[in-house]
Amino acid sequence: MTKLRSDNDPVETKEWLDALASLIKQEGKERAQYILDCLLNAAEKQGVSGLSQPLVTPYCNTIAKDAEPAYPGDVAQEAKLEATIRWNAIAMVVKTKKEVGGVGGHLSSFASIATLYEVGLNHFFHGETKNQLSDLIYFQGHSSEGNYARAYLEGRLTEEELTNFRQEIEVDGLSSYPHPYLMPTFWQFATVSLGLGLLQGIYQARFLKYLENRGLLQPSDRKVWVFCGDGEMDEVDSVGALTVASRENLDNLIFVVNCNLQRLDGLVRSNHKIVQELESLFRGAGWNVIKVLWNSHWDKLFAKDKSGALVKRLTECVDGDLQTAYVRGVEYTREFIFNTEELKALIADWSDEEIAELNRGAHDPVKVYAAYSSAVNHKNQPTVILAQGVKGYGLGTKTTEGRNVAHNQLDMADEDLKAFRTRFDLPLTDEQLLSLSFYKPKKDSPEMQYLFAQREKLGGFLPARIVTSMPLKVPDLAAFDAILQGSADRTMSTTMVLGRILNVLLKDKNIAERIVPIFSDEVRTFGLEALFRQVGIYSSIGQLYTPEDKEQFLYYNETKNGQVLEEGITEAGCMSSWIAAATSYATNKVPMIPFFTYYSMFGFQRVGDLIWAASDMRARGFLIGATAGRTTLEGEGLQHQDGSSLLTASTFPSCRAYDPTFGYEMTVIIQHGLKDMFADENDVIYYIMAMNERYAQPAMPKGAEVGIIKGMYLLQEGAESKQKVQLLGSGTILNEVIAASELLQKDFNISSDVWSVTSFGELRREAADLERAAMFGDNKKQPVSYVNQCLDQRSGPVIAATDYVRAYADLIRPYLKQTYVTLGTDGYGRSDTREKLRRFFEVDRYHIVVAALYALVKEGVMEASQIALAMKKYGIDPKKPNPVKS
């Protein structure tokens, strides 16, 4: 509420206020808002300052009582259903704790959000039908019990499954949180990693507009609903993209923030007001804000309060005050909230029972319905609903409700169970209650008939993940023949090869329109700016300006049906767009093929949590780690050089990570990934490194395809010799390995086989699978792993060098019989040339030679003096600092 100056002409002020009231009454609030906007604009033009509209409105409901629509539902039946769902959620958690033990669960989060869910499920959330796709709903992660309890009433989950909540290994149970990977026909989105649901929701809503503007989806009133807690809004991910939603006019996006004022251990803003803070944040970001703070029982008081004293008092009470008043009850509320003679007069004739009914708006279906109705009909802006509720609502003020310990409440005493039964009028006997029996009304009962009737009006049940097989026809490897033939004498980076691959895909009649190139910026750095002209950059409003480079062939070309998502400098935003595209086969029945190309250092290091969430959501798509490695990006220094992402990627079960050196390797991997994910429809993701270092690209050796996908193949075979080594390399360091092979032969007469290792991770994955099978198998002969097939019959020790930490090449160490020496880029990055960086990290050709000699010494076939000779010959200082410690 704006602070007013002293009034030197109250009569004139009243005339203006009366005129405004008359305008609102005669022509409505929208017309009044327009007139006020015109007046403000005119005042600003005439130099009247300080006219910016306030970011915070009074601490009351945004929608006034007289503006509320009539409630279309049967409040009595909905109350019965909500009470039953609340009970089954409680029974599920408490029963599991009593009978199983430490698997945990939450009671208080769903207790505070239940009405917000139920109003939506009864009146707003559209399910999937033959004629329409469902709304996309990001349910609050810690409230899954409520979703399961409702699905039980709907007949989608069994009593056995509820009994086995949080038990998924030996029994038919339910996941702790929304996990599409574990419950692939139930959950749509993984939301329990706090903040990620909100970020994804914004880019999901934008991706729907992208598909519509490109003609891949029919325009519709489909909504994206995102539920979260007020404490979750502290996450940077929660608020980092709010202006994206307003800039894109995403009126298909609705946030519902469950403002129960509490986080896990205490209040979100004990000394302040979180609702007001969030309102200013969202208003400032250009959102439509609707506050649902107080239930219908407050309406009489607000109507009676002509001076605004009550709103003023509620505004000055910090959240700690409001929480204490709620917990301590009627007597405290009378004295603390209504603390002046004017306020006391408002409730002078109110009984304790009436005071006790003064509750918060998130638990009043009438208030929630009014907010939802306004939100779904609002145009040209995203909407956030700030719904004030009570954590642990209904679980007993003496033990849980509104208390700081609410989040940790996993049990209820018999007394509390009985109080809950009375409060929500549940038809449970003492035996049913105390044995925590699940309750399902008869199918022909009025409340169950109502439940099914409401969902029938809105379509199918939610949450639900309905996947229809829609394989795409992907190009054969022969379609890339020009790339497979190499570049002759022309030098080319694998990032440039990626551009050639995309060019082939964007001309393929079967999948061209499904390709989604995504960048966080640096498209020109990657040499992929041809995409600007070829398919255009997506803009929901087209290009309203003439680009300064319009005369150039590859000018910055924004179009409403553009294909490139150029997101600006936000890897997290790009990943969210990538997830929306990579799961579009499930959410939209439109399989899309996303390629997110970014600095590899900012991949698994920066947005690994989002990549993990994508895996949980069974994403399908390509992540391209460009300018990959710790020594290929010269001059950039510590934070721009990636030495660990491939190692991290190996820990993601559904990630297939590759480090190709040559263009033909990248081509084979991408073509295989297309077939794997979009023709065979396997729920995996492909992480492929791309370098910016240019070198001649050779033609593909005959028969290399299988080895490229499995993880390694023989690139050069050396002559048999008493002194022979096996040299393994990947990425640009393979070129150093090839050079080291020549030095070994020339300077020491040592023969070597050179292997291109496209994926140590895939080699390890297969070897580990076979080792497990052998451990649990019988005495039958077990198959030999591919890495052993390649190396077991070869003579000499094995030396591996990569542009990543040594632990990456060490992934296959347990499966090798030979002496194994690895080189890698352990330590922090540096700014310098490629040559000096490789020397510093000891992965250049000369250090590879020394490592080979060392391996031969370990095997007893060479004198140690040869190592000293080599170091002197190549100018290697044995006393140089260890790069790990430098």
Compile the SSE list and pairings:
Elements: H1 10-27, H2 29-45, H3 75-99, H4 108-123, E1 136-138, H5 144-153, H6 159-163, H7 196-213, E2 224-229, H8 236-239, H9 242-247, E3 253-259, H10 274-284, E4 288-292, H11 299-304, H12 309-316, H13 319-328, H14 330-336, H15 341-346, H16 352-356, H17 365-377, E5 383-388, H18 414-423, H19 430-434, H20 446-458, H21 481-484, E6 491-492, H22 494-505, E7 515-519, H23 530-534, E8 537-538, E9 558-559, E10 565-566, H24 571-582, H25 584-587, E11 593-599, H26 604-616, E12 621-626, H27 645-649, E13 655-658, H28 663-679, E14 685-689, E15 695-696, H29 705-710, E16 712-716, E17 724-729, H30 733-748, E18 751-757, H31 760-776, H32 786-791, E19 798-801, H33 806-809, E20 820-823, H34 834-840, H35 845-858, H36 865-873
Parallel strand pairs: 1-2, 2-3, 3-5, 4-5, 7-10, 7-11, 8-9, 11-12, 12-14, 13-14, 17-18, 17-19, 19-20
Antiparallel strand pairs: 6-15, 16-18
Helix pairs in contact: 1-2, 3-4, 3-5, 3-20, 4-17, 7-24, 22-28, 24-26, 30-35, 35-36
What value does the average pLDDT take? 93
- Which consecutive residue ranges, at least 5 long each, have pLDDT under 50? none
In terms of quaternary structure, what is this? Answer: single chain
Provide the gyration radius in Å.
Answer: 32 Å
Shape assignment: elongated
What is the strand tally?
20
How far is the first residue's CA from the last residue's CA?
57 Å
Task: Give the % helix.
Answer: 40-55%
Structural class: alpha/beta
Largest sheet: 6 strands, parallel
Strand content: 5-15%
Q: Helical stretch count?
A: 36
**How are the strands ordered across the major sheet?**
10-7-11-12-14-13
